[in-house]
Amino acid sequence: MNALITDEQRVLLLANGRESLQNPDFDPAPLVKLFTPDASATWLLSEIDPDDHDHAFGLCDLGLGAPELGWVSLRELATVRGRLELPVERDLNFRAEKRLSAYARDARLAGRIVV
Q1: Checking phi first, is residue 111 left (phi over 0); if not, alpha (psi -120 to 50) or beta?
Q2: Are 59 and 30 within 8 A, CB to CB?
Q3: How far is CA 105 from CA 4, 36, 92, 114, in A?
Q4: Residue 1 has pLDDT above 90, yes or no
Q5: 4: closest CA among 38, 49, 54?
Q6: What predicted TM-score, i.e. pTM, was given to this entire model?
Q7: How far apart are CA 20 and CA 27, in angstroms?
Q8: 20 to 30 A Cα–Cα from 35, which one of 24, 41, 60, 78?
Q9: How many Å apart are CA 18 and CA 45, to the nearest integer?
Q10: pLDDT in tens, 16-54
């Protein structure tokens, strides 16, 4: 799990999780992009549940043409493997250019996450 999210990102994701609990209109930019290098899955994570540090919220795309906002287990992501058995990776160059809701809107229109 540590390879997927840095300590600095975890602090920011938890802060977003706390803000989200207090402000229902909170729409942060995603902080982390995870992907399967040998499959079509992508996750843009914007927050971690402050009461359950295993659950992250974001835009999830399993490569089936139906990306959706939702919760994902970080422990489960650490076990995911693609066709060639490669693990999920963090995109080291990802920098969000818009809010999560805008990524979700664009993904629904395209049928996949577009960054």
Answers
A1: left
A2: yes
A3: 25, 22, 24, 10
A4: no
A5: 54
A6: 0.94
A7: 8
A8: 24
A9: 15
A10: 999 999 999 999 999 999 999 999 999 999 999 999 999
